[in-house]
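From the pipeline queue, job 12 of 40. The input is one protein chain; the requested action is below.

Action: predict structure.
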Amino acid sequence: MRRCRRRGRVHLGTAAGVDVRGQVPANAHVAVLVGSYGSLADTGMVLPGSITQRATRCGHRNCACHADPPRLHGPYWQWTRKIAAKTICRWLSPGQQHDYQAWIDNDRRLRELLARLEALGANALDADPRWQRKTRPAPADTSP
């Protein structure tokens, strides 16, 4: 990393043949994000969706869950996600909830890291000096 004499900006080097220039060293941000990605790899699994705690009513008319006020059955743990525009739900045991919650947290962290990497890529694209085209002067009129 070196400082440009003329503009005073930090030169970040080349990435895929493109000079990337900016005020903040993007490579440092990428290194931090990749380190976070490595910590996700240590835990292993990623599971999309969410886990919620539910209380339900049964089908027995004389049960306390139908009284006023109701005393619902539960708590039960339910995993929910969307697959091809359909909601998929599964009931979980307390042990499963404990294990799968870490996987869902990993999924959320992974999505956040990906969004941050995409933002860095978009900023690098915008900072590319080749996007700033010089305007050509109008051609001289050569008519007699």
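Job complete. The helical segments are 26-43, 94-127.
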